[in-house]
Queue: 2 jobs
Job 1
Amino acid sequence: MKSKSQWGYMNKSIRILIIEDDLQMQRFLQVLLKGHDYDLCCVATAYEGILKTAEIKPDIILLDLGLPDLDGLEVVSKIREWSTVPIIVISARDQEKDKVKVLDNGADDYLTKPFGSSELLARIRLALRHANQQSQPKTHRFESEELVIDFSQRLLWRHGELVHLTPTEYRILHLLASHIGKVLTYRQILKEVWGASYIEQNHYVRVHMAQLRHKLEDNPAQPRYLLTEVGIGYRFQFETIQH
Ligand code: CA
């Protein structure tokens, strides 16, 4: 068991596997992540990446899509056959359909090159927090200054007032909250909430998300909890008050 402090992770014990064939990019990631005390392993091919995942059991994987021997998309599918390790894809491909495809295949997050150091570090922390929560008992209650969501009672309060959700809104919220911090694609949401025959109906999700935001958010135009990933889907973000 790796030691994790109550307030966050001890980065020294966090092992990151970098699968990236661009040596300049590899170097950039190494300098940045070593500077934050992460324990690193770098490989330049998909084949080595899959082997190392089994061998060193990383806490998180940073994966380039354009690899010399196999597409990164295939790497995600292969690793997902036996591992739930968080995978953040780092790629120059900025097409929405590429992002959607790799997230649908089981990647946890996607960063488009070029990206800022702080953005990458934030995504790593988020993915680790998400992985950590999965291994703990399910959180049934989310509590911030203005919002309380209690999934065990199926109730929600905003500024102390009970908010009524429709069954569909509730299911969407529950789905997103069960994957806190992770981007869920339209397809994933449609499949889980409406069923497999609805996976093309992106507007269903958009309409219900707009309603949910009006109920949950103080400022629906600048949401704090239900974030949009343009053209891809949604992400639920929540900082629970520490008691
Ligand atoms: Ca590459």
Job 2
Amino acid sequence: MEKKWWHQSVVYQIYPRSFQDTNGDGVGDLKGIIQHLDYLENLGIDAIWLSPVYQSPNDDNGYDISDYEAIMEEFGTMEDMERLISEGKKRGIKIIMDLVVNHTSDEHAWFVEARKSKENDYRDYYVWRDAVEGDVPNGLRSTFSGTAWEFDETTGQYFLHLFSKRQPDLNWENENVRQEVYAMMNFWIDKGVGGFRMDVIDLIGKVPDKEITGNGPNLHRYLQEMNTATFGDKDLMTVGETWGATPEIAKLYSNPERKELSMIFQFEHVGLDQEQGEGKDKWDLRPLSIPELKQVLSKWQVALGDEGWNSLFWNNHDLPRIVSRWGNDTTYHDQSAKLFAILLYMMKGTPYIYQGEEIGMTNYPISDISEAQDIETINMYKERLALGFTKEALIESINAKGRDNGRTPMQWNDSPNAGFTTGEPWLHVNPNAKEINVKNNLENPDSIFYTYKKLIALRKQHALIVWGDYELLTETADEVFAYKRSYNGKTWLVAANISEEAHPLELPEAGKELIISNYSLTDVPQGTVTLRPYEAFVIRVS
Ligand code: TEU
Ligand code: CA
């Protein structure tokens, strides 16, 4: 496979609203990001995936865009954006824009026009259908609860919205829509961005009348067309958000020969702690099975071969914090946060850090729905309450899976509001910011931050981590996740005990060199070792 910069890179995701406020309005901004570029350079990352910063009425925190070529006033100006790109460049940090083109905001000029009349030039930019027997056109559902069809009084038709009713779906079958999107992408490419993260890109080939949403028949044709019209001949990084992807589907997107995307986010591991079956979704909780986690991640490690590339992540702005979710955010907070870093960053693929993950930020439990800000959470709560779920059960699900968990303000130091803002933060700051913060992490050489920093540095030093073969060790306790990476005659062994109990592990080969660990080890592990609670290490065995 031709080597590209992004194969060896680590990407840091910023959710701008919660990163750093500089003007006291309680909302993070672009100047706040610029202020912390030195921190990110110190961590060693190569690129920032910037969640949307475009003009937006914020029905879904910027994922509802009303102007793709303007910056949200709360976040700053186009000048700030240009400075972010150039200041990033000085530090070897590229900016990856969030491309949200499955839908726009209902305040986008195209939709404002489209809804005026059936004859409007922009009408066909969106998906309009007549009522069927006085009701919605069909059974399509919104990810944010309820029907995906909204009735529009003015013209007496329904429009499609796979997310909130303020996020009307674009009609990708319309050639003009596609050309407008490509022109907009070129606007950002000309500004010097490093690539695009493509929001729910698996939905753009939808066939609403057949109730096909993901993986529609024209999806890959559109992506190939986009590639040719925009980034194809530039050295950019692209990553598609594709919820239902299997390894076979991942190859369609990311096989370099097909000229589509660099890589995708697959979510198979993310769904392992939800109940399976008809009508069940992420709110229906079940405990994680570690053997399943091993099986799923290992499958993805080997399945793509030379025909695709993996993204590696535990967290993003839609997911709960990994240390709270599958680790232990009290007794073994530091150990389990480091374990998840070591386990993932030794795998093959491009790792993504979500802001705050590098200091072990945790979920923030709410006790009442009035504390929630996220539209998905609020809509689900209303819907399920009406269906007869108890408040207690719903709050439990929200505390486990709600999107606000990962969106609380970045914890910089132990001052009021964690140094995020001098004003009223838009979303509650976790009180554990007194202990869990960047300042403490930077002062302590054993902190989670320095584990991340070291893992990132190791990736730069060792081609084995980027290119080596992967093999799961199968003869282990259920709770022990161990694998080997091999490259050019060298082999490393990664061992991680994802539990609060000690477990023995028989090392197939003697350790020659200790690469990294989350407990302090005086000797290189040999023979049969006892892995302590959440212990993880990497050793060279040949
Ligand atoms: O997420 C896609 C998506 O389907 C999520 O809403 C996901 O299903 C959910 O959060 C987990 O249950 C992307 C963005 O990442 C998300 O923030 C947006 O809300 C959504 O698209 C719409 O743009
Ligand atoms: Ca601000």
